[in-house]
Write a structure and sequence with these properties.
This protein is of the alpha+beta class. It has 2 domains: about 55 residues, YefM-like fold (3-Layer(aba) Sandwich); about 90 residues, Double Stranded RNA Binding Domain (2-Layer Sandwich). Helices cover about 45% and strands about 15% of the residues. The protein has 9 helices and 6 strands. A hairpin with a 6-residue loop joins β2 and β3. The two termini are about 25 Å apart.
Length: about 170
């Protein structure tokens, strides 16, 4: 565990009370150290001329940040078909059985992720930007089985809610 007084008050010690910005050139030159810092839960803001800043953080921290963006699929059973509506991405999966509808939904997600990978303008569209946390959760999954687990996970019971700013 960190000794916060030591880290923030001794001469020559970098304050950790805010994300330390560095230039792209500094980041490139010190990538190994930045990588180690990210693994120690210290994100780094990287700035580049004529571009928006980016943040380097660990995969563990990335997953933790996204965990609050759960999916709430809605399953609609009709006389001869089943539909799965995913409101977070505004897409449907349909089939004659629930298994087929889930398979169709996963195929729709694959199509959406392929479109987003190929089209920077689409990724920047307002209706996509607001969906990015859920899209990132699906991108991080390494298989259809893992995506299905993320999509259809049971709601967490007894989970602590994340703190809300100003609350």
């Amino acid at each position: 565990m960190y000794d916060w007084y030591y880290l923030t008050h001794l001469p020559g010690c970098q304050r950790l009370s805010y994300m330390q910005p560095i230039t792209y050139s500094q980041a490139r030159a010190g990538l190994a150290d930045l990588y180690d810092q990210a693994l120690e839960h210290v994100p780094t803001r990287i700035e580049r001329r004529r571009a928006n800043p980016a943040v380097l953080l660990s995969l563990e921290d990335f997953k933790t940040l996204l965990r609050q963006f759960a999916f709430a699929p809605e399953v609609l059973f009709e006389a001869s078909s089943v539909a799965v509506w995913l409101p977070e991405l505004a897409i449907w999966g349909r089939g004659s059985t629930f298994a087929e509808a889930k398979e169709d939904l996963l195929a729709e997600i694959d199509q959406l992720l392929a479109l987003l990978a190929d089209d920077a303008r689409l990724r920047s569209a307002p209706n996509m930007v607001e969906r990015l946390p859920w899209i990132f959760r699906l991108m991080e999954a390494e298989s259809d089985a893992e995506r299905e687990e993320v999509l259809f996970a049971a709601p967490a019971t007894g989970a602590r809610p994340l703190p809300v700013a100003g609350a």
